[in-house]
Write a structure and sequence with these properties.
There is one protein chain. By secondary structure, the protein is mainly beta. Helix content is about 0%, strand content about 55%. A two-stranded antiparallel sheet has the order 1-2. A two-stranded antiparallel ribbon has the order 3-4. A two-stranded antiparallel ribbon has the order 5-6. A hairpin with a 2-residue loop joins β3 and β4.
């Protein structure tokens, strides 16, 4: 694909990334362990106000 940045044309290069399942590797009292991370889903997002300032609260 031909792209342009500030008037200079260049050819794009595609990169392929391998996906891996997220996991935590560690040691507890000298014993190695692996723990897989669960996918996080957002249940609800609320826009709240405290002393006149808006902030966002995310409920999982």
């Amino acid at each position: 694909m031909q792209l342009s940045y500030r008037g200079i044309s260049y050819q794009s290069t595609s990169t392929n990334l391998a996906t891996v399942k997220p996991e935590i590797n560690g040691k507890y009292r000298g014993i190695p362990y692996q723990r897989q991370i669960k996918d996080a889903t957002v249940k609800d997002i609320k826009v709240l106000k405290y002393r006149g300032l808006d902030y966002i609260k995310v409920f999982n």
